[in-house]
Amino acid sequence: MSLRIGVDIGGTNTDAVLMDGADRVVARAKTPTTPDIVSGIRTALAGVLTPAPVEPVVAAMLGTTQCTNAVVERRGLRSVAILRLGAPATAAVPPFADWPDDLRRAVSGHVALVRGGHDFTGQELGPLDEDGVRRAAASAAERNMAIAIVGVFSAVNAEHEQRAAEICGQEAGADQSISISSTIGSIGFLERENATILNAALTEVARLATTSFAAAVRTACGATTCYFTQNDGTLMALDYARRYPSLMLASGPANSMRGGAYLSGVTNGLVVDVGGTTTDIGILVNGFPREAPFVVDIGGVRTNFRMPDVVSLPLGGGTVVRREAGSVSVGPDSVGYRLTQEGLAFGGGQTTFTDVVLSLGRAELDVPVPRPSLEPNLAENAYRLALELLERGVQRMRPSADPLTGIGVGGGSVLLPDCLDGNVEVVRPDDYAVANAIGAAISEVSGSVDRIVAVGARGVDAARDEVREEAIARAVAAGAGSAAVRIVLWEEIPIAYLPGNAVRLRAKAVGPLGDS
Amino acid sequence: MTRRLIGLQELEDIAMGAAVLGTGGGGDPYVGKLWAQERIRARGSVELIDADDLADNDLVIAAAMMGAPSVIVEKIPSGEELAAAFHAVEEACGGQATAVMCIEAGGINSTIPFALAADLGLPVVDGDGMGRAFPEVQMVSFAAHGLSATPMAIADEHGNVTVLRSISAEWAERLGRALVVAEGGASVLAQYPLRGRDFKRAAIRGTLSLALEIGADLRRAGRQSRPVIEALTNRLGGAVIFHGKVVRLERETAGGFVRGGVVVEGLEDLAGSRCEVKFQNENLVAIADGSILASVPDLITLLEEESAHPVTTERLRFGMRVYVLALPCASLWREELGLAKAGPRCFGLDLDYIPFEQRLAAR
């Protein structure tokens, strides 16, 4: 296989790498992220494609924060018609019950609660009210709303959701984006509903982001297949990304972790991504990011999205250090990407965390700068505070007290000490500064299934096979070549308190990029 | 006469206070809170009245939810079934209730009665049957005083209502569970119809206003753990019995309970010490370096240092910095009558109960 491009759009920088068939980095570029996003992408692409490579570029992968930003900034979101299946159950708590007002206003469309849904054994609570579904779909289509379908216990039985989606497709047209909760979240009705609504609301943002990236790639390197990174550190094809934009939420930290794993050869460890403003700490398990265990808050909304488990600390290379009333403070504000103008070491007037580390002689930058001179007391106190913050983050994330490898990635990782929290030895692989773009470029395509199975007459083996096959089918739908897809994650979790033997089955299938 | 109005903010505070009194368990009050807030938004605030406001012949009935937590978070009620159960108990008792009550002041069942009270335009009476959260239905002050849990009514979202008369609280629990399973794993119920005089005699009083005040303390303190701890220890007569970070965590689900323990390694002046907190849904006992610091029925609550919020056993994780707080239980639980229902031996712990204040003083 020949050349691939990985692009990562972060809050501060847009990074790109060009990699060859043996996964070697051929070229790298770093450029400030632009407000319109796409001109930053063009600059980064030009950076790795000059001089033009002799071989064709066969694939381009994008990791982007656009979906996260759209939710956080309430920008570009579609209004959503919510179709709940389960009446009269669930009426006690209507949709959007716990949303921040501004986000609710940006997203809230029509709400319909119709009969349908299942109980925990997968039996119908009642027959699906198809006429009710039809009416709701027509009304959503009339007002050009995206549709979110949520059925009670759809993680156990998704039939009603699928049937409702079919009807909505007939009524509203295939173009109307329809999000189905059983493909998005797990048990926990309100959290899954929220996740589904956000997915539906993001469909326009995803359409624009995928289209503009594909166009920029086509202009820069001709006919190339585009992929988008998911937040579990795998890829999906363009069509799949448009249907499941929520899978792009928090894909940035996942890319850094995958890149860190690839560059260091460490598959189980801790990744410390030091940027200009923040430091993200995550955990690698078998080369993939560990998942967050609880409900995840996105833009003030409680969801049960699958997300990487990351702690974000207010400490980066540009974090401002001050002496105030005799005591020293570190951040949380930062000069961010202006570090190379405003930092002391670069001739500016702000004392930053970078200056503290340089003045103590604890690190050197790739581009040599004069060692800034700080009062020793200030530097030492600030360094101690920063280290304390880092070590608390490490303590929160590390799975046990056993020795662990820490992988430093991101532009600011040179500032890290060689050892954290007693026995976390820090390594800094080559190309650490563009680990996120590398993480995007080296990844494979995946598909996941998360389902609750009531082990009744049917037996658990049939259910296992079904879940496995569906995960593989989803990986293929997401763009994996069907021949080499394999199951990389399999979990069986007994569900506490459920009478009978209910078990939650989770499968993830992964395969290399397809030929298309 | 004490009356206060419970609106949206107050309910938020009660839910937070109930998490402190939930001592690590009690069920997620989230769904109950949203439900009650929805009804308060539609029908207006709910009055919280003092037990002394009840006339001796007044009828009060407890409203609660029963079932598997994993069903409660999935099959959300319709909102109509609680009133149906409540009216069925009224009918069985041949009278109209003057107030709604809470069976427990910790966890999910501290918020659900407010949804019903808002719908019916009834007050909630300030008190409950536990003063905290306990896992089993006989661990209720009313049962300790020999009061009957029935007639009890169980209702589901389809409109099914079943009225039960049982010979004991244990039977009410057993029959109730069977019905709940048949109805899809979670239902609502109305139980313990009590006369005003019995409530005044047997309830643990003032626990909802206490939860409200605890929640307000936490809100006012922001995410600062020191003021939160000061407020909690002052208001409840509690004490910080340990401070450190989680270094070991064992959790398993068995027989409808989450059992296990967490080991906290001491920080600062406690460096070198270790404290283990064992739990069965709720926290049961705290042992540091071989000596017991506190045990049930006293409340043991873990407070996360970073957020200054109470931590449930599900949310505990390695590396988390926590304060271990001991809070005194209601005086009933320290008496022979109470210890027989909810003393350490009722949880399979081979130890004698000594109030944590005495244990601390002896150290």
Summarize the structure.
Chain A contains 14 helices and 24 strands.
Can you walk through the features of this model?
- Chain A has helices at 38-48, 66-73, 101-107, 130-142, 159-172, 189-201, 203-221, 238-243, 251-264, 339-342, 353-359, 376-397, 435-442, 460-477, and strands spanning 3-9, 13-19, 25-32, 57-64, 80-87, 108-115, 146-151, 178-180, 225-229, 235-237, 269-274, 279-285, 288-289, 296-298, 301-303, 310-313, 319-324, 327-334, 404-409, 419-420, 424-427, 445-454, 486-494, 502-511.
- By secondary structure, chain A is an alpha/beta fold.
- Among the domains of chain A are: 1-75 and 202-249, Nucleotidyltransferase, domain 5, CATH 3.30.420; 78-199; 444-511.
- In chain A, strands 11, 12, 13, 16, 19, 20 and 21 form a 7-stranded mixed beta sheet that branches. In chain A, strands 3-2-1-4-9-10 form a 6-stranded mixed beta sheet, with helices on both faces.
- In chain A, helix 4 packs across helix 5.
- The two termini of chain A are 13 Å apart.
- The mean pLDDT of chain A is 90.
- Chain B is α+β, with helices and mostly antiparallel strands.
- Chain B folds into 2 domains: 3-205, CV3147-like domain (CV3147-like fold), CATH 3.40.1610; 222-362, CV3147-like, CATH 2.40.390.
- Chain B contains 13 helices and 17 strands.
- In chain B, the strands form 4 sheets. Chain B has a 7-stranded antiparallel beta sheet.
- In chain B, a hairpin with a 2-residue loop joins strand 14 and strand 15 (291-295).
- In chain B, helix 1 (8-21) runs antiparallel to helix 2, helix 1 crosses helix 9 and helix 2 packs parallel to helix 5 (112-120).
- The termini of chain B are far apart.
- The mean pLDDT of chain B is 91.
- The A-B interface holds A 86-94, 97-98, 119-120, 125, 152-153, 155, 187-191, 293-294, 302, 392, 394-401, 494-499 and B 30-31, 34-35, 37-38, 67-71, 73-80, 115, 157-158, 181, 184-185, 245, 247, 253, 256, 258, 314-315, 317-321.
